[in-house]
Amino acid sequence: MSLEKDWDSIRPDRGFRAADAGMGILRITLLFGSAAVALALIATPFLDSRSQSARDSFGGLDAMSTGSIGHRDTYTLRRSVLQPMPSSVCIIRNDGTRSGDC
């Protein structure tokens, strides 16, 4: 029995503690989190080079198009189920003039 008491004096808590489990979960989370960051740092240049080859397949043409429309002339486009053709469009300008299939 003396040996058991000596062991208890050196290491008194031999049971399971919730704090130890919390530290284990924290370590696992940090391990997988750092692995995800490392994978993202490695995969980003690889995926960028693949998208570069996809951009080259357009012959160097950038698919993005931009433009601007002036606000000098406003109009309203109207379609109606009562018009003879479903694709008929009536254009009404801001001065009241109409064009198209009105």
From TrEMBL:
Keyword Membrane in record: yes
Membrane-spanning residues: 25-47
Domain of life of the organism encoding this protein: Bacteria
Keywords of the record: Membrane, Transmembrane, Transmembrane helix
Protein name: Transmembrane protein
